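Here comes a specimen:
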Amino acid sequence: MPALRAEGLGKTYRGAAGEVIVFAGVGIAVHAGERVALTGESGVGKSTLLHLLGLLDEPTAGRVYYGENEVTRLDALGRAEARNREVGFVWQLNTLLPEFTALENVAMPLRIRGVGKHAAEQAASERLKEVGLETRMLHRAGELSGGEQQRVALARALVGEPRLLLADEPTGSLDERNGAMVMDLLEEVHSRRALATVYVTHNPAFAARAQRVLHLESGRLREVG
């Protein structure tokens, strides 16, 4: 059974000018250990699709499943709990709290889950070591370089032991060297943990590193190559 599955997924926005259909009838299935790249022109709805898969937004139509569980039928609290438990997110803008240390930022999802401070920071410390930041964990996020901040964001995505990893242009704000380093880390942690990973990218070289490439165009999703 896929770790992540969507059926008939659609998103429509309604405004004063009428309806805008972003996409309709989208289906996707990603198994544990599979890495999928999502490509398409700017504005076609790649981030919107990722938000729906990660329960950050509600679809106009269709269903999303985590394993055998349909998560789109959950209420707001249930979706938040499923998101915190099942999904790790990495964004182009890392959304770290600059006045907090790297350790505190990474521990935050566990603290929100109700984990005690000591246990949360112990887990955060292990994740920071995993991304090569064991000597920087007590530095404030605002004191770190862009590449280091993105590694902190990756550690934060992993601290809750998710089954799914969703990344939206995780290298988009980085130079070529740091971008390649972050992609290497994404691949390493993906393989080590047998995650189901979906990442949005405009970089053809990074897309080619995925096992499958899905292209969103004109409201439809198709597999490339």
